[in-house]
Amino acid sequence: MFFILKSISGLPQQFIAYSEPASRGSSSNSFSQSEPTIVTDGEVFRVQIGETLLLPCQVRDLGPMILLWKKGTRVLTAGGLQVRRDDRFNLQGTNLQIKDIEREDSGEYVCELETDEEQPTAIVHSVEILVPPTISTEPSNGQIVVKRGTTVSLSCEARGHPQPQLSWSKSHDQMPKSDITSSGSTLILADVTRHHAGVYKCHASNGVGQDATQDIHLQVLYEPEVKAERPVVHGGVGYQVELVCLVYSEPAADVLWYKDTMLLDSNGKRYMQQKGNRFTMLIRSLELDDFGNYSCSASNMLGKSKANVRVQGNPNTPIFNSRVDSRSPTSYKLSWITESYTMIEEYRLLYRKLPSYILENLIPNSMYEAQIQAKNKFGWSGVSDKFQFFTRGYDAAPIESSVKNPASAPFGINSAHRVVSQFMRYLYLFLALFVVLMSYVSDQVWP
Q1: Count H helices, E strands: the chain?
Q2: Has residue 421 been placed in a domain?
Q3: Is the omega angle on the peptide bond into residue 406 within 30 degrees of 0, that is, cis?
Q4: Torsions phi, psi of 430, nearest 5?
Q5: Cβ(225)–Cβ(247) under 8 Å?
Q6: Rounded to two decimals, what is the model's pTM?
Q7: What percent of the chain has pLDDT over 90?
Q8: Residue 196: CATH number of its domain
Q9: Same domain, 303 and 388
Q10: For 209-239, how does the pLDDT look when each residue is reduced to its tens digit (9 = 90+)?
C-alpha cells in the first residue's frame, strides 16, 4: 500500500489523502487529516459610515469542511457560495469584506466552521458603526416666542454613536448666569427679560466627523423701556442741541417727541431720526422759547413708557482742577472749569473745614472739602462734586463766599486764566530787568 498527496484546486495549502489498492490479500488503511482550526480571535471593530471593513477569519487545515459567515442567525456565505444578495459583501479568501458600511451593518458577525464535532467551531466579531452627531430641536423650526417674566425651556436632541455630549452657548453674547438651569439636552431660563433674547446654540460632539450645531432663536416680548441718554442738556441761544432717548422694546415701538404736552414733528427747525434703538431729535438754532421740558414717549401693543429731557441755558456744573496740596500755610487757591454759553455773572463757593488730626511736633495741617455753583441770567447750575484739599494753615471757621461779577471772560474763563496772566507779567518784568543788566555789564566791560 502507498499514499498519494494531491492538491485540490481552489483549496491552497490543503491536502487530501487517497489510498491506492494494495496487493491482493493485503488490508487497506487511510491517512487521517489534522482537525481544522480557526486561528483568529474575535474582535470589536469601530468604523464610520461609508468605509470598507475586512473581518478576518484565518483557518488552518480546512480540508473539505464548510466555513460559514453569519450575522446573528442570518447566513451570509457558505463555503465559496454567497448566500446574501448584497454586492457589498464578498469573501477575501476566508475573510469577509463589507464595502460602503451603513448604519444597519452594526451587530455581531460569526465565522463558523462546520465539523464532525457536536458543537461547531466559531469566533464572533462585534461591529460598531460610528455615526457623526446630528441634532433636532424642539420646536423643529427653532423659533420660540415668550413674554417677559415667563420661564422657558430650550430643548435639543442629539443622535449618533457613541452618544454625543451636549453643550449650550449664546451667539455674540455671554450666557445669562442667573436663573438658568441646564440638564444637558434642556436649557431652562426663568423670569426672562430682554437680556435673555437672542440666538442660543446647541452643540453636539462625539469625536466622530464634524460636531453638530443647531440654533434656537428666543424672542422675548415686552413693553418699551425708555432712558434719556442725558436727562439735562445744556444749550445756548443760536446753538444746536441734540436730545437722545434709548428705547428697547419687542415688538418695535412707535416713538413720539413732546415739549410739555405739545406733540412735535419734524420741520425746518427740528429733525428727528432713528438709528437702531437710539432715537434723536435735533433742534437747530435754539431760541429762548425752546428751553424747557421735553419727553420721548414709546408705545407698542404691550404698553408704553417715556423719559424726560430738560433743555436749559444754565451753566454746566463746575469742575475743580486745583492742586490737592497748598503752597501757603494760611491760604489756598481754588480753580475750576465751567461751561456756559453766556457770560458767568456770579459764582457761589461753598466750603467747610473737615475734622483733622494734628501730629505733634509737625506743621499743623487741615483737610477741607469744597463745592461750587455757577449762576448766569438763566439761573444757578447744579452743585459740583465735593473736592477735598489740604493746607498747612491754621484752623478756620466754615465760610460761604459769594463772588459777584468775577473778572472773567465769557464761557467759564476763571481764576486759572488770571494765574497765567500774572505769570506772563512776571516773565516780561524779568526779561526787561535782564536786558537792562546785560546793557550795564556791556558798558562796564567795553567802555
Answers
A1: 1, 35
A2: no
A3: no
A4: -65, -40
A5: yes
A6: 0.58
A7: 44
A8: 2.60.40.10
A9: no
A10: 899 999 999 999 999 999 999 999 999 999 9
Distance CA 54, CA 95 (A): 7
Rounded distance, CA 167 to CA 203, Å? Answer: 5
Q: What values do phi and psi take at 425, rounded to 5?
A: -65, -45
CA count, 13 A, side-chain hemisphere, 343? 7
* Number of domains within the chain: 5
Q: Is residue 9 part of a domain?
A: yes
Task: Provide the residue range defining the domain that includes 8.
Answer: 1-33
Q: What are the cell numbers at 193?
A: 427679560
Whether residue 443 is contained in a domain is answered as: no
Residue 323 lies in a domain: yes
Q: Would you give the DSSP letter of residue 422?
A: H
Q: Please state, in angstroms and rounded to a whole number, the distance separating the CA atoms of residues 281 and 24.
A: 129
Q: Which residues contact 266 (CB under 8 A, 6 or more apart)?
A: 272
8 Å CB contact between 157 and 186: no
Q: What is the pLDDT of residues 159-170, one digit of tens each?
A: 998 999 998 888
Query: CB of 180 within 8 A of CB of 174?
Result: no
Select from 189, 223, 257 the last residue of a domain. Answer: 223
